[in-house]
Design a protein that fits this description.
heterodimer, A: Alpha-Beta Plaits, 2 domains, three-stranded antiparallel β-sheet, 11 helices, 3 strands, 70% helix, B: 237 residues, alpha/beta, Rossmann fold, six-stranded mixed β-sheet, four-stranded antiparallel β-sheet, globular
Chain lengths: 315, 237
Amino acid sequence: MAGILVRARFPRRRLVQIVIANLFRYLFRGAARNWARNISSTAPALGSMALLLVLLGLVGLTGIALYNLDQVESGQASILHVYISDGADPAGVAALRERLSSDPRIASIGYTSKAEALQRAQSIPGLPELAGASDSNPFPASFDVQVKKIDDVAAIDAMVRNDIAVDAMYPTSYDRGAYQRIQTVLFGLGVAGFAFLSLLGFVAVTVTINSIRAAIIARRDEVMIMQLVGAPRWMVRGPFVVEGAITGALAGGLAGLVTFGLAAAGIEAAAGSFNQFAPGITITVAAIVSLVVFGVGLGLGSGSSLISIRRHLES
Amino acid sequence: MRPIVEFTRVTREYGSRIALDDVCLTLEPGELTFLVGPSGAGKTTLLKLINREIRPTSGEVWVDGIPAHRLKTHRVSDLRRRVGVVFQDFKLLPRLTTIENVALALQVGDLRISDGEAMDRALDALEAVGLGDRGKAFPHQLSGGQQQRVAVARAVVAQPPLLIADEPTGNLDLDTAWEMMDLFRDIAAWGTSVLIATHNVEIVTRLQRRVVTLVQGRLVRDQPAGAIGRMAWLASS
């Protein structure tokens, strides 16, 4: 009896489902099971990495605050107050303003009258007493000159300090060393922070490498059997990388939460003054830093596992 | 027909010690061969060269057309999926059940095999070795002979063209050892080449199969099936 030949499409979708299910089982489910089974040997690595990542988060937040402080300081340092002599001729003052306005290095010029200077001084701690000690207003009027490049502030100062309309005793607010000192301090802090972070990174990687090494040693027989029955390299190594990633992700998640919590508590507790000693640190910034900490944890965990596997897992 | 295993002037040294010395050997498909020799003769080294656990110092090792002597590390798994291996100490994964141990060998080689298909084929292999009813048992719940049968089922479940066994009866009593040999004979009859390294003189002499004898790393005798006799004492040394 003749049969009927049925031409059916190869069940590609089913095949893909099977391959994905097998991949998931060998890479992720197996890794998660092993990770849970080896929790006692993984716990020290998890704790150390979480602690290091918290420090990383706090150093990161400090770095952002210092960067913002640097921006604020450089902005303030590029404003030159040119103090006008009390007895200056209005024509001389106008001429001085004209000279400044025509200079291409200057972005803008503001004017603060003596009355405005006094009012401003009264809001600064310590200065109201000084203002009250004198019968007359001791604060001079000034041109507030915004210089385009901070490097040009010295040249503008040199240009105006001998002008006839400028106060001979205190010609400008220019302090030759102030900005450089701030820069030096910030640079030093940056270098120290970088060195500290590098050290933390090194310690975190070393701790994780040792943890994965312990896992490899504990499962050496299993690894050998997998290799002998023909398991490809990715199938033998993959679960260890995933285990490292799980450790890193958990440590990163924990550290991210702690970092966020500390930052949020700081912002909440000192709502008024927090922005002065940690400029730019908001809830959004804290959340972003926490996410970065999580990502770094994930990367550190899987990266360290890869290094450990390369060193300790024979092929 | 292409030999399933071909050694051409293979030497393997460990430092200054020569484990295999200028060995030439071929195994044909479907052949059951015993590898005998005293301890330290190089039997395990020869098996490891076939399974590409080590490389030869010189010479060529071909396994089912694959040049094991120059195989890159990332291609080793391709070769091992063509070679079933049985060890003296079974090497089963203790956390997996019997049937999972057997199915593992299938699925690591081919991710396209579904759980259901892997379990069906693993059960067939277990039934073939007489353990169809012990699929859910863990290795520690089985006797040594049963564990070795599971190891054989795992080695053949993917139907490799070659099975190598390193002292497979070393941990078994004589009756169980004979059962294992019956199993190996059946496997060879199905068309799989079987190479067994053993010390068991009685089995070697009574089965009257091909016997390759190694002494101090040199292949000193290659007796065809049915001609076993005088040199069998070497296996017991």
